[in-house]
Amino acid sequence: MENASERMEKFTKQHLDLPYCQDVSILGQPVQGDGFTVPNAFCIQPMEGCDGTAIGAPGELTTARYEGFAAGGAGMLWMEAVAVVNEGRANPRQLHICPQTADEFKRLRERIDEVAHQNGHASPKVIMQLTHSGRFSNYSGNLDPVCAWRHASLDGRYAKQSQTPPVSDEVLRALPEKFYQGAKLAKACGYDGVDVKACHLYLFSELLSCYDRPGPYGGSFDNRTRLLMEAVEAARAADPGILACRLNIYDAMPMGFGVKTDGSLDMDLTEPMALQKKLADAGVRLIDVTMGTPYFNPHINRPYNSGGYTPPETQETGVHRLLSGARAMVQNDSRTTIVGTGFTNLAAAAAPVAAGCVRDGWVHLAGIGRLAFACPSFPQDAIAGQIKQNRLCLCCGKCTELMRAGSTAGCPVRNPVYAAIYRRDVMKK
């Protein structure tokens, strides 16, 4: 594995400049948001484990993962997708917040604090990500799409989606109430805030680019953002604490959100920046910036060393795009605390680049995704200057292979529990 200097040399050769700071102490300092304080600058990104119970409560592996994250000392845990309706679950074991699962979510939140304190850390801020999976809904295990509208790129890849009639206005109008109920339960369970998810072409994200959909949820910018804003307002009414949004600012497909409407893939952040301001006006004070979708162009949101296809660009280009997009949002509206994405691929350079990005105002919080699967202790290791290269993420895609096999996701390279699961569910098929 490359050392930090070798990794950064690849960026230099491609004329892709990233901030870099050998003194990473800034990552251990509190980050002040509007109305909340995060104990340090590390945020564990939302990553689905596909290991809930049949009704959507956290399972044993779910709890074990979050215990590991809590022991690792990150200042914020941005919880994986939690569906607000059963039919909006992305897989039969996706988490689902409802009265029947609330007690288990409460126990998980309490356990996170217990483990953090046992390991000498302050209580992290824990955000529950509320979602509807839209065209990627799969609660039965046989794909149950709820499509916002026809989508040329995605319909061409998933036949069942192309054959499913778009969801009605009536069904969409009923969803904000579900987000209110989810936010209310999250608060009662002790979570510090909720994310109204609008990324990766799940329902609210897909609606952002429904230029041709007729009626109140398509066409104009106000119409395409209508359901997201209604859900945000509904969640805000539940007084959930921190109001957040994980937001796609660039879909990286023709006629996508954050893409020029000339049929190209050129980025255009005019509408994402307008939406950021609209969200801030509605009380959203925390945005986790992301791009693309793992179902169509995963190299966009998680640049990899190996995967299902050879990307049309270098990994360094993808990392630089993710972090530059976060910087644009930081500069666009000072009311919003911004979580940046893309650090995992930097490997040994992740901590000094994260420190440079925080120091230079590219991000407020450094989001750690697949890297936390591989090394849950990375935040405390980085702050202490004790990073071990043999525990870093290889960006090999094996965690995704587990998900695609209908199994539970984790790192089979670094974690023996998931190594055994990988042998059972992937290698034997």
Mind explaining what this structure looks like?
By secondary structure, the chain is an alpha/beta fold. It has helices spanning 4-13, 60-71, 102-118, 152-155, 159-162, 169-173, 175-188, 203-207, 221-224, 226-237, 270-281, 298-301, 315-332, 350-359, 370-374, 378-384, 398-404, 416-427; strands spanning 31-32, 37-38, 42-44, 76-83, 95-96, 125-131, 193-196, 242-250, 286-291, 337-340, 365-368. The strands form two sheets. Strands 3-4-6-7-8-9-10-11 form an eight-stranded parallel β-barrel, surrounded by six helices. Helix 2 (60-71) links the parallel strand 3 (42-44) and strand 4. Helix 2 (60-71) runs parallel beside helix 3 and helix 7 (175-188) runs parallel beside helix 10 (226-237).
Instruction: Indicate the structural class.
Output: alpha/beta
Q: Residue-averaged pLDDT, rounded? A: 97
> Beta-strand percentage?
5-15%
Element string (H = helix, E = strand): HEEEHEEHEHHHHEHHHEHEHHEHEHHHH
Tell me the radius of gyration. 20 Å
Low-confidence segments, given as residue ranges, are: none
Distance between the termini: 30 Å
Helix content: 25-40%
Shape: globular
Find the count of extended strands (DSSP E, 2+ residues). 11
- Strand sequence of the main sheet, in spatial order? 3-4-6-7-8-9-10-11
User: Biggest β-sheet, characterized?
Assistant: 8 strands, parallel, barrel
